Amino acid sequence: MRLATVRAASASQLALDAAGKFTTICARRVIITRLPSVHFPEKLLEFGSYGIGVCLQHPDGELETLVEPRPWRVKRYSAEDWWFAETAYGRFLAQQSPPASALSPAL
User: Which of 43, 47, 45, 46 is nearest to 30 (CA)?
Assistant: First the structure.
């Protein structure tokens, strides 16, 4: 199973948005280091409704699953899927190969 993991201090809207970027390509979860003090059950319900898992990381490193991530299935491909894949692959290639200027002949 492919799983995108986002680490955040708490189950905030920012963490939800960050995990949501992976909706079309894999299952998602957020690892938090502290429980939110306000609206905790509502936040867990919100993450669960989007299929995003939530784990609490204890000080000793142990992960406690609060919400299971929904398994991911390919539904369809969209322009966003292709854009994300092309962007990610382009960044990967940029890190792996020499710059394009080094490959082109000097004019």
Answer: 47
Radius of gyration of the chain (CA): 18
| Nearest C-alpha neighbor of 74 from the set 85, 89, 90, 86 | 85
Model pLDDT, residue 69: 93
Check residue 2 and give its pLDDT: 85
**SS3 of 13, please?**
helix
- Angle, vertex CA 56, rays to CA 51 and CA 61, nearest 5: 135
Tokens of 85: 């894949």
Answer yes or no: pTM beyond 0.70: no
